[in-house]
Known about the structure:
By secondary structure, this protein is α+β, with helices and mostly antiparallel strands. Helices cover 30% and strands 21% of the residues. Strand 1, helix 4 and strand 2 form a beta-alpha-beta unit.
Amino acid sequence: MAMEHSQRDEEIAHKINYRGGSSVEQLASEILDQHGKASNSDLFDIVCVLEVIEHSSDPASLLSGASSLLKRPTDTCPGGILFVSTINKTAKSFAFAILGAEYITGMLPIGTHSWNQFFSPSDVRNLVRDQGLSEIDVCGMVLRPGFQLDFKLDENDTDVNWIAAYARK
């Protein structure tokens, strides 16, 4: 979808390297040379891991691979930013994401989520800190009233869905 949107602006479309269809770990392996390094020009300004880690069998590996794909800060480059969104590990998230979305409304198939695989902002902060990243900001993603999936950002409510940005220290 992002690629489709960029086609509306021909000036930037050719400058964006969209990648998909493989795991983050596969992409990192492809880009990094045998010494585990890549030139900044081969790395990314932005890497998004959105609504994925709660489904991953190895979240630490996923975030390690994603972090390794970020441009390094230099005098002329601020470095890349990692965006992560997921579902918080709270009683409220269990009620909304599992009971509400799977069992009551049927918006998602039963078994889509496991509460044991949800992550709090501090859980992810600890995982990315191991990769040399620090948190820039974290915000909740809250459903607006109504019957459509329409979210707004809320700095004070990370109880269910949340998104955060991370960069090299």
